[in-house]
Write a structure and sequence with these properties.
Structural class: alpha+beta
Number of domains: 3
Distance between the termini: 95 Å
Number of strands: 18
Number of helices: 8
Oligomer: single chain
Shape: globular
Mean pLDDT: 89
Largest sheet: 6 strands, antiparallel
Strand content: 25-35%
Helix content: 25-40%
Radius of gyration: 23 Å
Strand order of the largest sheet: 11-12-13-8-15-16
Length: 396
């Protein structure tokens, strides 16, 4: 008896064969240093992971290159994770094949931050810009007050890296990416199509990842701001500017303003899922599994970026894990998001926890500022004693 295949069956069979071929395609990437231009990173472990289950790993060679052969497709459901001792872990959404990524050496400053830009082959020249009072750090002015452009790249892929050694209290910072290649074309789509990604590191942790918007047009991507009190505010918007030879500081006057910040609404299902993850994180924290707790709190925040309790819990977990710079970042966001009947208590305790971190680092003036902020939110003899200790140490 002959088996007759219908067109539908044949089409389905061919689709499976094509999918299998695509899934078997190797994935090659290169890993560089985020802070030393063109430095290849050997011995980094690169893992491709699909839906948190299937995975394949290999180590980079002397050229920082690695080729992996996963049994699954290199698509948006795949994550790439890069690890090497002394560097912060990098986690990025794929597709990844043919890309170059940079990993950041662990930072030790409590108020430091590193911003790493990567993109595809085109446009050839994207530029990182950080603007804050009396300072504009970019390729024409590579140093500012306690900040510097570590790496400038002009031939595609990146990295382009800015390190802020110490964020100044009371000053607002704005970070943006300018498409220098298309500087005279404010209506370009090339930046939107560049695959650009921005990774923000605090301490030893990748705390924020931004992906360039793929809709709209423009040659300036305003990514985020850090407020006077150290809170991150996400913009993630494209607009067109007219400079060609360089991005003038004056053109930043109209971007990154707090008044332009758009409120993000999270669905009821996302909020419910975030609450469930937060509860799981609390259980992991009380069981002493800090890494798992941190992961769960971060997943909760991904689903609901306005979830103040998850940020507060994340700050405690980071502090318990001795990841103090990260703890301060989470505490500042918890302070900004605090609301309702417990708002004063959340703000006071978060300020107090940051004060303890500064005190442990012998940064008396910073500790005193945080303890006074806690006292202003809520009276507590513990805060009074802390203030007295800092004053005895000469803090003003």
């Amino acid at each position: 008896m002959k088996l007759r295949l219908t067109n539908t069956v044949l089409t389905a069979a061919l689709s499976l064969l094509v999918a299998g071929a695509a899934a078997a395609a190797p994935v090659g990437v290169q890993i560089l240093s985020a802070t030393v231009k063109d430095k290849k990173i050997d011995g980094a472990t690169v893992t491709l992971q699909k839906n948190g289950e299937q995975s394949v790993s290999a180590n980079t060679d002397a050229q920082g290159q690695v080729k992996l052969s996963p049994t699954f497709a290199d698509d948006a459901a795949t994550l790439m994770i890069v690890k090497k001792p002394g560097y912060s872990n990098l986690v990025v959404k794929c597709p990844c094949n043919g890309s170059t990524y940079a990993i950041s050496p662990v930072m030790n400053n409590l108020d430091g931050m590193r911003i790493v830009l990567n993109w595809g082959a085109n446009p050839a020249d994207l530029d990182s810009h950080v603007v804050y009072p009396d300072n504009h750090v970019y390729f024409m002015q590579m140093r500012g007050a306690d900040a510097k452009l570590d790496v400038d790249d002009t031939n595609g892929f990146g990295p382009e890296t800015i390190t802020i050694d110490r964020k100044h209290v009371g000053q607002r910072y704005v970070y943006a990416v300018h498409d220098f290649t298309d500087g005279s074309n404010p209506n370009t789509r090339n930046l939107a199509n560049s695959g650009a990604k921005v990774f923000v590191y605090v301490g030893q942790t990748l705390i924020r990842t931004y992906y360039v918007p793929t809709t709209g047009s423009g040659n300036l991507w305003t990514v985020f701001a850090v407020t006077e009190d150290g809170e991150f505010q996400d913009f993630n918007t494209l607009k067109g500017v007219t400079s060609h030879d360089r991005l003038q500081t004056s053109e930043f006057a109209g971007v990154g303003r707090a008044a332009d910040l758009q409120a993000v609404n999270y669905s009821a299902s996302s909020q419910d899922s975030a609450k469930r993850l937060n509860s799981q994180g609390e259980a992991a924290y009380h069981a002493g599994n800090l890494d798992e707790a941190i992961r769960l709190y971060q997943e909760a925040i991904e689903l609901n970026g306005n979830y103040g309790q998850a940020y507060s819990n994340l700050g405690l977990a980071f502090q318990k894990a001795n990841r103090t710079a990260e703890a301060m970042w989470a505490n500042r966001k918890a302070i900004a998001l605090a609301s309702g009947s417990t708002a004063a208590t959340v703000r006071a305790s978060s300020h107090y926890n940051n004060g303890k971190i500064y005190e442990a680092a012998s940064q008396w003036d910073d500790a005193l500022r945080e303890y006074r902020a806690a006292q202003a939110e809520k009276s507590n003899p513990t805060y009074d004693k802390a203030i007295a200790r800092m004053q005895q140490n000469g803090a003003k």
